[in-house]
Amino acid sequence: MRHANHLHPFAFYPAYALAVLLPVILGQLAFMVIPATVSAGGYDIALRQQLSDQGIQPLASLPPSNPAELELGRSLFFDRELSGNRDTSCASCHHPSMSSGDSRSLPAGTGGTGLGPHRTQAEGREIVPRNSPDIFHRGDPQWDSMFWDSRVNANGDQLMTPAKQDLPSNIKDVLTAQAMFPVTSRAEMRGNIGDRDINGQINELANIADDDFQGIWQAIINRLVAIPAYQDAFAKAYPDVPQEQLGFQHAAQAIATFEKKTFSQRDSAWDRYVAGDNNALSESAKRGASHFFGGNCASCHSGSLMTDRQHHNTGVPQLGPGKDPTTELDPGRSLQSGTQADEFAFRTPPLRNVMLTGPWMHNGAFTRIEDVIRHKFDPVESINNYDPNFLEESLRSSVRFDPETIEAITEKISPLMLDSEALGDEQLNDLMAFLFSLTTPSADLMLDTTPASVLSGLEVDRLPASEFAVIYDPENGGLRIIGNEELSLDALFFRISEESNGSTTSIKFEEGMAPWADHPEIILSDESDAQSFLEYRHDPSFLVKSGDIIESLLPAGLSSDAVKQLSAAYRVHGSPILWQAEVVMVPEPTSTILFLTGLCGWLFRKRGAP
User: Fold this and answer.
1) Nearest to 186, CA basis, from 117, 118, 111
2) Fewer CB within 10 Å: C terminus or N terminus of the chain?
3) Is 297 in contact with 442 (CB distance < 8 Å)?
4) Vertex 48, ends 44 and 50: CA angle to 5°?
5) How many Å apart are CA 48 and CA 51, to the nearest integer?
6) What angle do CA 366, 370, 375 make, to 5 degrees?
């Protein structure tokens, strides 16, 4: 089999080669008249000085995990046994297949069914009033607070939490402390008084008083240790802790260990650049980074994690039920601090993997990253002209457009938000390129993270099952898509295994690389995982429909007879959710047919959807 270092796409597409190389040649000629400050070296010198001024360093590696604790945490993270009605898990709102979030503006907690944008809330249930934040890098030692309002935070060696003195004393870090509280929230996981669980049994967690944290935690650990498989798992993870001394803090610690291990990727282009590789970023990304660190962006999105972990009012439109029942607004940090200066202020979110973690802001008000950027440059204009039509339909009527609410929010907007230059299209594109560089490919295609089962035996949150097919078409030398739906896709990924020696080659079709686009191209590599091909683009999506041919799937020199297996993942436009499936060989007398079947998400947008 010929791989990327032997097989160059220009060999197949001379026109494409000319289209690509001509701008490069012209660029080299133009270089002679461009000032030296915008040469590659010039960008790097200035940008590296900015990084030094900002104190930005490569992220520290995390210590090794206890394997038994890690596996216990994996099961607990996906186990609905932790919720009062046994219908919601941590993964319901922080699923690896959705980049540690749920791809919704506001979550549907207990009583909800389904996953991601198509999760539906049961009638009479309250929607959770704040967006599910991503959990990337929350195990980094720099993190000293959790939640949008930092109601869990570290003050020196002391942990400050809603439980106050009831927090178990053997909890030592904010990530473990954070894991103690979603299970206490009625809307998120615990349920309401009088609820019955999925088996029709009384929900004993819901009948405990809201301020009896110790009672809630004890009831959950009682559930867990009543399951023999969990008895064994806790004994392996914590052999020095007798079963009768186990508390929910041990479950929280295992969950935190799983989150640290699973969501701490460090393989982005930005990581490589910070580590010293000047070739890791495009020129546009370097310009975007220079603009980002040279302007007000880094005043809040500072440091290696790109957050100051402070609270700012950024003028976000009010939508959803809010946190204050008297006003149906969300006053933000002021609910914790009690100070008016903190009204509508929320903790600065980190930006690593930001392109994957939408919708954005504390209530998911923005579903397009370019709208977030434009808002940051002119929040008053943005809130006054906010378009709710990009929200899911059930939330559109909840947006507060009354002058009193808008005035209350805008009069306390952070001065840092009001001192920005006008944003041009070129600056927007450069900032987008920089933000794309913060994405780690392995944070996207986390297809192997979801366990097949959990120790309670309850159903695991995963993408819904469906079937679709792609038939190998020998006459056209490619795959013909079979299906009744039109899919709006950002990218297609295929992974091929050769039967002869089991080696793997990945092929990726991106926008502009399909036969219905201007410049088809195949990218091959020796890498065994399609994750390494993930590049992000913010161009409009292309449409795949039944009957389309994906040409030249099999590279020259690799016959269909040599293919043992293909696997595919489809990124659906407008959502970080993937279609995923296996492609297996089904030989026929006269031709080879490939069928693509298996697990895939319903989570696509039909043509014309916002």
Assistant:
1) 111
2) C
3) no
4) 120
5) 5
6) 65
133 close to 110: Cβ distance less than 8 angstroms: no
Alpha helices in 353-484 (DSSP H): 369-377, 379-384, 393-396, 403-410, 425-437
Query: 116 to each of 27, 105, 358, 432, 607, how far by Cα in Å?
Result: 44, 10, 12, 25, 19
DSSP one-letter code for 592:
E
pLDDT-wise least confident of 29-43, 81-95, 213-227? 29-43
Helix H or strand E segment including 494? strand 487-498
Please identify which residue in the block is written with the tokens 């693509």.
Answer: 596
Residues 3, 524: Cα–Cα separation, whole Å: 6
Element (H, E) at 596: strand 592-597
Quote the CA–CA distance of 164 and 152 in Å, as a whole number: 10
Q: What are the tens digits of pLDDT across the range 311-369? A: 999 999 999 999 999 999 999 999 999 999 999 999 999 999 998 898 999 999 998 88
pLDDT at residue 212 is higher than 90? yes
- The CA-based diameter of the chain, rounded to the nearest angstrom, is 77
Rounded CA separation 417/140 (Å): 28
8 Å CB contact between 137 and 264: yes
Strand partners, 524: 507
Per-residue confidence (pLDDT) for residue 295, from 0 to 100: 86
The count of other CB atoms within 10 Å of the CB of residue 155 is: 9
Domains of the chain: 67-262 (1.10.760.10), 267-442 (1.10.760.10), 469-597 (no CATH)
